[in-house]
Batch of 2 targets.
Target 1
Amino acid sequence: MASSDTGRWARPLVVVLGASGFVGSVVTAALADRPVRLRAVARRPSAVPTGCLADVEVRRADLTQSARLADAVEGADAVIHLVAGGVYGPGRGGEADAERVNVGVMASLLDAMRGRRRPGPPPAVLFAGAIHQVGVPPRTVLDGSEPDAPSDPFGRHKHAAERMLLDATAEGAVRGVSLRLPTLYGHSPATGALGGGALAVMIRRALADEPLTLWGDGTVRRDLLHVRDAAAAFLAALDHVGPLAGRHWLLGTGEGVPLERVFGCVAEIAAACRGGRPVPVRRVPPPPHAGPADLASVVVDASAFRGRTGWRPSVRLREGLEQTVMAAMRPARPAAK
């Protein structure tokens, strides 16, 4: 990836938006080991490893403000857009705020890129999409060829942002790549965060010696991708923007694991770590707000992305769960100032 800077910093400038988040902090740490200029941007302080190879700049900014966003991506050769926000669900509100973050930030980013055309190839923009964009899966194994019919606000917002990116790519304003993420798990060594999904909740319950609850009969399967493998996928995409630009790509392990088995594994690992017997895993009826997509099994065939980049997941599920449970036992880290 060639740099637009011909001064003393003859290195490409990579900007990570959402660098303090669960995925963003892991991506930022991985990029810090590369010979790039790295600008880590987030609302909260971003943790960056010391003694790294990259030349690192950390910025705090409210990226929903278009002027602050435009300043954050000034001179970028590549932008990795990992900003996500909003709280979805009945009684939780925030859908309008979520759209302002999940759609509005992409719109402002592309406006900034359109206004700064330069010689050479357009800047690369890598976006964290979501498997949710397909809506209710038309079949268990997804490969990216399925028609999209997002069935919830999160999926619709992600889909709208992705369409904006791919349209801007067709215009020649950017080289856009959308990586659709499946269910992620793991922890961020930089921040200690476990992420905000159901699996993280169950890990905390198991360590607190509380029963784990499982919707339905336990046969629903999920393709669980470790956050470290997700970060590696973004770096692989950064290295292969040319053949990837202009479409979406699915990420996953290719293995769908029944959630009852996953939760049982969490209970066993937590018991070994804290002592005592594994907590029970109890089946409960799905709540009224659960939709068909919540109760559908999903397995991801990521062979298309793997064929273009050589990327493949490296973290085995048991290993990843053990590491995540151990991370959850450590004291919470004070927020960076």
Note: The chain has a mean pLDDT of 91.
Target 2
Amino acid sequence: MRAAFARTVWQVLEPLHAVTYFAPESREANHAVGMRGFWMGYFATRAAPLGAVAAGVVEAAFFNFHPAMVRRAIPDAWSFATPEAVLRARAEAATAALRRVAPSAADAAAKLVPLLERTVTVADGAGRPLFAANRGLPTPEDPVGALWQAATALREHRGDGHVAVLTAEGLDGCEAHALFAACEGVPTAILRDNRGWSEADWRAATDRLTTRGLLESSGHPTAEGRGLRAHIEARTDALAVWPYHALTQREAAQIPVLLSPLADEVLTSGTIPFPNPMGLPARPTQT
């Protein structure tokens, strides 16, 4: 199975997961459980599978946020709600949101969930804390909830692998964003402001990338910079594709076919903003 298959799946899997950040059901659930503002809700709901962890754990696992941004939410979030309460609210809200914005999810779940859960089961959790924590959660009884949970575990599997590649290449969180923005043409403010980096932080990161020969003095990527970006994405795909080897070629081929209509429903609903700091394209593209 080609590594590019993992990217194809990510492009149609990520929209299903992302409703938990942007859908009104999820924002309202975070508020109801006691979270103070969007970002506390974000950090708490994504970190809750790990338990009531300290800020340093979240900084390390999430990788690309300024530590001060994390510390404005964690560990305070756990004084307002336990991780268990946050997880219940997260699952119920994401399920409701996915049912609303992707009406065909209920029918597709019957075929998708067994395939995705087999993939989750065989995936290697070593060095993947967010994936392993999500895999360890109980499977929701609601089939749409089970679909969302499997999608979430697999996206965290890919994300953990991506962090491993970035750190192996000697990039810190701000540098990773600065290189991505330069190579992909994403507006700087989308990444900088949504990850808590200041303009001074960003300038320092671009200076370091320039010193490494990855950016020109103009801020445009060099050939070496583009090459490193391409290597990072290719290596991320290669690490992410391994769990899908548990499926036959025919079974694996069903996943993007079944997910694509759901992803399109989510994307056309307007729930997810574009551009966004997740790097998700506005429409999934087949490889």
Note: The chain has a mean pLDDT of 96.
